[in-house]
Design goal:
The chain has two helices and four strands. By secondary structure, the protein is α+β, with helices and mostly antiparallel strands. The chain has a single domain, classed as Rossmann fold (3-Layer(aba) Sandwich).
Length: 92
């Protein structure tokens, strides 16, 4: 079975401005978070490298980023989005 990450299986909204791209797979979770001025697509080589049979892979699309950047963001927005993602996934 191939787990190429060209497109996520699902993308969900987290709060008002963040999104979580999901590649469904195994029972364990791997969360990928890009850096400041980055983007979730930068994580694709890393997401591809993680065993999709073992892990469901998540890529956080942070506020102010993504296809429709919705204005400026600050570190507090990033922290809140990471917390929302961990709540969605079910923990660290």
């Amino acid at each position: 079975m191939s787990f190429r990450t060209s497109e996520p299986d699902l993308t969900v909204s987290l709060g008002e401005r963040a999104q979580l791209a999901i590649w469904q797979g195994g029972d364990e979770a791997a969360l990928f978070v890009h850096g400041w001025s980055g983007r979730a697509t930068q994580m694709l080589p890393f997401i591809d490298a993680v065993n999709g049979n073992r892990y469901t892979r998540y890529a956080l699309i942070l506020p102010g980023h993504g296809e429709q950047a919705d204005g400026p963001a600050h570190v507090g927005d990033f922290i809140a989005a990471i917390r929302l993602a961990l709540d969605f996934i079910g923990g660290p």
